[in-house]
Amino acid sequence: xxxxxxxxxDYDSHGRLKLPFLFWCxxxxxxxxxxxxxxxxxxxxxxxxxxxxxxxxxxxxxxGLIPGVPAALAFVLSGRREQVPHLWRxxxxxLLLAQLALxxxxxxxxxxxxxxxxxxxxxxxxxxxxxxWLVTNRRLRACFYADPH
Length: 149
Fold this sequence. Notes:
This protein has about 150 residues and is mainly α. It contains 8 helices and no strands. The longest helix is centred in the middle third of the chain and has 27 residues, at about 85-110.
């Protein structure tokens, strides 16, 4: 039996397919700039220093917020997916597109002069694994495209 098969334990008490744990990890990874933004806001006087540490070019920071928008929508809509099924189905391709953009963004930054670093390489690897998981996980796709009835 494959580990990607859907089992009865994968359903919640309402009969909906549970979203996999790794889905939440991927959303967190996609929304990493938003997480940094919240952390900077919560750190009071050191927020600007924190943002500058991760994004010396503030334009990169603002661009980094864009791929996190589908992840934020997925967070908000995940509990109400049966109420807005068409919008929920639209989130999946947006997540794929955002993950692809994140994967391509880091090498683009290196090609435009940013120094190669260990954390940047680790993020690129995490982005590649996340994209592969988003594309290949049958249970996740079923969470987006399964017939609610």
